[in-house]
Amino acid sequence: MSIQIPRGTQDILPGDSEKWHYVERVAAEICSNFQYKEIRTPIFESSELFMRGVGDTTDIVQKEMYLFEDRGGRNLALRPEGTASIVRSYVENKMHGLANQPVKLYYTGPMFRYERPQAGRYRQFVQFGAEALGSEDPSIDAEVLSLAMSIYQKLGLKKLKLVINSLGDLESRTAHREALVNHFKPRIGEFCSDCQNRLEKNPLRILDCKKDRDHELMSTAPSIIDFLNEESKSYFEKVQQYLTSMGVEYVVDPTLVRGLDYYNHTAFEIMSNAEGFGAITTLCGGGRYNGLVKMMGGPETPGIGFAFSVERLLAALDAEGIELPIDQSIDCYLASLGDTAKDYTVKLLNDLRKEGISAEMDYLNRKIKAQFKSADRLKAKYVAVLGEDELSQNVVNLKDMSSGEQQEISLESFVEHLKQKCQ
Fold it and tell me: Dmax over Cα atoms in the chain, in whole Å?
């Protein structure tokens, strides 16, 4: 019986993996320009980290986490998202004491959620994210939003929509929470069991329910915007002012709710308006989480960040018909004729690679015609032919595959000659 890949996972094969490298490289370069540094955290952590950090009322904790007990009896979880791990590391490594503040970090890696697989959504998926910890200035909110948009725009996406909202400070959220409970409580029996459980624990998350989103009470639910105190209003207005000055286009949506418990003040999503992208249009989500560091045992520290699925980013690129500028050609293919020439080709190939030249040779003892076909498939810029005659004359026959021009190069100068051509 053959063993197949687990449901909700995928193999990223050559031809596609280059797209991943390109996307991740572009994202990392932009983060570097914004002075965000890379951090790498474990793939599994204490399950308590996510229960406390993500929130025990969220679908992630209640339904989607991959939980296991190790041989030492410790309760662990495959990480379902990145922010909780980053904050844990921030606290554990005392990054709040670093001279340069705020601490600006980015990460990429696999995350795991047990949910129904859909197009572009997997149980193991790769998430790219960025976090800024240590500043409660609204300008850092605008910077983080601009950073996220810059990554998508640099990759060529045009049909984007940035949606923002304010969840307010604790005072604003408390007043809004009470209004939501009063609004939904008389008819909560008409909602799904999840919403009924959320009513007292976290009524804001009722607004994020997929099952009951068309219920009439959803459209008439109290808006958080109406409950923002002066401080929260001023903060949100300042974020919008900075976005406008940066030329970042956005839409305010008072119904926008993030699915994790730790968000406050600024919340946002980036969506794709590309035709054929699918019913779920969200590409990226994030927001401010000023109480999370303290909840994790650290000092009172403000923070804001975002994360996006690389799979969904690639799907958005496909939906807009964007071809990434990936060069899959090689510099040189070494074609050999005869055993003695092949023996020398092995050394010559290694010499080329040491000089940073991408090169390949035949390993199947094929005839010269088949070797040239292989060079074509690999999109070789040059083909170097080495046979018994060339060896006896101490030369290599080099063919430029774009022009068809051929020339003989001495073996002693061949590597340096090709190196200059490929620069």
Answer: 95
Average model confidence (pLDDT) across the chain: 92
Residue 263 banded pLDDT, cuts 50, 70, 90? confident
Report, as an integer, the average pLDDT of 50-59. 76
Q: How far is the C-alpha of 310 from the C-alpha of 324, rounded, in Å?
A: 14
Spatial distance between the Cα atoms of 303 and 80, rounded to a whole number of angstroms: 19
CA distance 165 to 167: 7
Alpha carbons 369 and 361: distance in angstroms, whole number: 13
Return phi, psi of residue 344, to 5°.
Answer: -70, -35
Full DSSP string of 203-229? GGGGGG-SSSTTSHHHHTSPPGGGG--
Name the nearest CA neighbour of 155 among 314, 46, 305.
Answer: 314
pLDDT tens by residue, 230-239: 999 999 999 9
Q: What pTM, to 2 d.p., does this model score?
A: 0.89
Q: Name beta bridge partners: 325.
A: none
End-to-end Cα separation, the chain, in angstroms: 50
In which residue are the tokens 């940066």 written?
246
State residue 62's pLDDT score: 78
Report d(CA 176, CA 182) in Å as an integer: 10
Q: Tell how far CA 33 is from the center of its chain.
A: 17
Helix axes 310-319, 17-33, angle to 10 degrees: 110
Helices (H) and strands (E) in the chain, counts: 15, 16
From the CB of residue 187, how many other CB atoms can be counted at a distance below 10 Å?
A: 11
Strands 282-288 and 406-410, how do they pair?
unpaired
Lowest-pLDDT range of 8-12, 108-112, 217-221, 368-372 = 217-221
Record the tokens describing residue 18, joined without a space: 């280059």
